[in-house]
Design a protein that fits this description.
The protein has four helices and five strands, in the order βαββααββα. The radius of gyration is 29 Å and the shape is elongated. Helix 2 packs across helix 3. The chain has helices spanning about 45-55, 100-105, 110-120, 135-145; strands at about 20-35, 65-85, 95-100, 125-130, 130-135. With about 150 residues, the chain is α+β, with helices and mostly antiparallel strands. About 25% of the residues lie in helices and about 30% in strands. The strands form two sheets. A three-stranded antiparallel beta sheet has the order 3-5-4. The relative contact order is 0.17.
Length: about 150
């Protein structure tokens, strides 16, 4: 670079969707009939039935092989929901610091690859507590420094 020449940084522009998406949320009641067969040691039929009821009262108490014999699905209600799109991490409204996971998503790399680049010092990072973050400027600088034309060895 020439002396006195200003270094140009590329700015990333992303499309921010202002229109929220509308979906329907349905409340559904499901009735399912299941059958299981099991052998119980008991003095009589009433004692056997009581032992099975006691197992049902315990969380995860009745294990066995269940077979669904019938099921019914009924929609009992519907309501409209709106999902507001969050700004893309690299948009001007996005955060100033990106987690390593979000950086990986933005670059199309895995978390472990980004972690390795940070550990080797190839991407500048900010440490907050025990976590590492990458600024949008450091990300743009990394991309600029590693952008090449043509084939080279």
């Amino acid at each position: 670079m020439r002396a006195g020449a200003a270094r140009k940084h590329k700015t990333f522009k992303t499309k921010h969707v202002e229109t929220p998406e509308t979906f329907m949320r349905y409340r559904v009641m499901v009735t399912r009939v299941q059958v299981a067969e099991r052998y119980i040691r008991a003095a009589d039929e009433e004692d056997a039935a009581q032992k099975v009821r006691e197992e049902f009262d315990r969380p995860y108490g009745y294990f066995g092989s269940w077979k669904t014999t019938a099921s019914e699905v009924e929609v009992v209600g519907a309501e409209e929901t709106v999902i507001v799109q969050q700004p893309h991490p690299l948009s001007p409204e996005g955060p100033l610091l990106l987690s390593l996971k979000d950086t990986g998503k933005a670059l199309g790399l895995s978390y472990s690859t980004v972690y390795e680049l940070v550990t080797r010092g190839e991407i500048e990072h900010v440490t907050v507590g025990a976590r590492k973050y990458i600024s949008r400027e450091a990300l743009a600088h990394f991309i600029q420094q590693n952008t090449h034309r043509g084939y080279h060895r």
